[in-house]
Design brief:
7-stranded mixed β-sheet, single chain, alpha/beta, about 260 residues, about 45% helix, transferase
């Protein structure tokens, strides 16, 4: 179940890509299949070991193009262990809403992105998330749970400003290039879960809707694809924002100005 549109991100074979907060690796695997040089980054060593094992299995099964590489790296989003400008593309999907010092994490993402590179950030969309919080305290009070609800304006502001130097010298801000919404079919599921109890997986309505989502993911029936296209702009659970870091020429021009 992918959230980011890799065509819109500009992902191509040979691109060096960071999947920050990779989790179980859903975006990392697809980028690897597309021929990218992928680093799956996360705090959870156990999940990263599972991701590493699947990277190996994908290569052995011939599911990735010749020359594509993939690895995992454990660490802290507030101090990424990578050089300035190391990555062509960065994905940070459904992770910033968990991080208290989100501005620091965003600045780190901008730092390790090369000039001219692109960044995709997805977070829970404001309206579906507000409904979840109002229906259930357990939804967001769980350990490691969501600690904030973003508006698009807030997150765009934080990311674009993160590209400016802290010392007052001239410098270009990150460029906001647009947004999408995804997973419209998933919002009602979480509303149901929050209403009946987020841990109550055996509730008949929750079980029935979960089967629908599994059918959507595994079989991708035309009817549900059409329903998703209608619902995504209205109640899509995820908001995806796309940014580009100004290229070297733009930064030099700003410095001269």
């Amino acid at each position: 179940m992918l959230t980011v549109d890799f065509d819109r991100l500009g992902l191509g074979p040979g691109d060096r890509v960071l999947d920050m907060g990779a989790g179980a690796g859903r975006h990392s695997f697809e980028m690897y299949r597309r021929g990218a040089d992928v680093v799956a980054f996360d705090m959870d060593a156990e999940e990263l070991e599972n991701v590493r094992n699947l990277f190996v299995a994908m290569k052995e099964a011939g599911e990735v193009p010749e020359g594509a590489e993939a690895d995992v790296k454990q660490g802290d989003a507030l101090a990424l262990p990578f050089a300035d400008g190391e990555f062509d593309r960065i994905v940070a999907a459904e992770v910033l809403e968990h991080i208290w010092e989100d501005v620091t994490a965003i600045k780190e993402l901008v730092r390790v992105l090369r000039p001219g590179g692109t960044l995709a950030i997805s977070v829970p969309r404001w309206l579906p998330e507000v409904v979840n919080w109002k229906l259930s305290d357990d939804y967001h009070n769980a350990e490691g749970g969501h600690i904030r609800i973003y508006t698009d304006h807030e997150l765009v502001d934080k990311v674009t400003k993160a590209g400016r130097p802290n010392d007052g010298t001239p410098g270009e801000a990150m460029i906001f290039e647009g947004k999408d919404y995804a997973h419209g079919l998933h919002s009602p599921y979480w509303w149901i879960k929050c209403a009946v109890g987020v841990e109550n997986d055996d509730h008949p309505l929750a079980k029935a809707y979960h089967k629908l989502l599994v059918w959507e993911i595994m079989k991708q029936p035309k009817a549900l694809q059409l329903a998703a296209k209608v619902l995504d702009p209205v109640i899509g659970k995820s908001m995806v924002l796309y940014f580009r870091k100004p290229d070297a020429d733009s930064q030099e021009g700003a410095a001269r100005a």
